[in-house]
Design a protein that fits this description.
Helices cover 25% and strands 38% of the residues. It contains three helices and seven strands, in the order βββββββααα. Strand 3 and strand 4 form a beta hairpin. The radius of gyration is 23 Å and the shape is elongated. Bound molecules: zinc ion.
Length: 170
């Protein structure tokens, strides 16, 4: 997989932009990645003001391997995310945090693969379903939906007798 490097030093005062395209291949090296497929545009902006360095990463695209919670079919999940970081120099290698990226004083490039990976995977919602209009258009399998609802009601009913027993004990 190519490294997505951005220039962070030897830059003039002001704004510096770079862009990358990310596709399925990007996620292959990350075994734990929940996102396996999709297409994304990554735009980076490095802002130099005196000794201050800031990095902004924008990612826009669509995750295409997630399954709908209702019908278990694949759905297209659009994402649009932004993260802002402060770049700080450090004498020794230090782990970056959510807000600060530590770089060595002689470091001119920053590989943002890990940041891209984390940003995209953290954007997955815990609950994902086809949206209302897709459901109405029949893209979301209603039969499966009804089955799930039926099953859910059945569980509720099965729980009820226990409450009856508890009531009798009172
Ligand atoms: Zn669905």
């Amino acid at each position: 997989m190519p490294k997505h490097n951005i220039r962070i030093a030897g830059l003039k005062e002001g704004e510096h932009r770079q862009g990358f395209e990310i596709k399925d291949k990007f996620f292959q090296v990350y075994e734990s990645s929940q996102v396996k497929a999709g297409s994304f545009k990554v735009n980076t902006l490095v802002v130099i003001r005196g000794i201050d360095r800031k990095l902004r990463i924008d990612i826009e695209g669509t995750i295409t391997n997630l399954l709908c919670d209702y019908c278990a079919r694949e759905l297209n999940w659009p994402i649009s995310i932004t993260s802002n970081f402060v770049i700080k120099e450090s004498e020794k290698e230090m782990d970056s945090t959510d807000e600060v990226i530590y770089v060595l004083s002689n470091q001119h490039q920053l590989n943002i693969n890990q940041l891209i990976f984390e940003m995209i995977n953290l954007s997955i919602p815990s609950k994902r379903t086809h949206n209302k209009s897709e459901q109405e258009e029949g893209k979301c399998d209603k039969e499966m939906l009804e089955l799930i609802e039926k099953y859910a009601t059945k569980i509720k009913q099965e729980v009820d007798p226990r409450w009856e027993v508890l009531d009798k004990l009172k």
